[in-house]
Design a protein that fits this description.
elongated; 80% helix; mainly alpha; Helix Hairpins
């Protein structure tokens, strides 16, 4: 996911995306703990995607205040 994909989304869409990513991160942690994780790079991708969504949420909040 790129940051440009998040620019046009509404706050509700971003919150939904964040929730989905957090669930995926939770599942990946369980897979890692049980030794079933095949794509270890996905953990890093999900973590960075969560940061991108949080940044987009923060930027939209600041833009609304201004």
């Amino acid at each position: 996911m790129k940051a440009t994909e998040l620019v046009g989304k509404t706050k509700d869409e971003l919150v939904t995306k964040l929730t989905d990513l957090k669930k995926e991160q939770f599942n990946l942690r369980f897979q890692k703990a049980t030794g079933q994780l095949e794509n270890t790079a996905r953990v890093r991708q999900v973590r960075r995607d969560i940061a991108r969504v949080r940044s987009a949420l923060g930027q939209s909040a600041v833009a609304k205040r201004a």
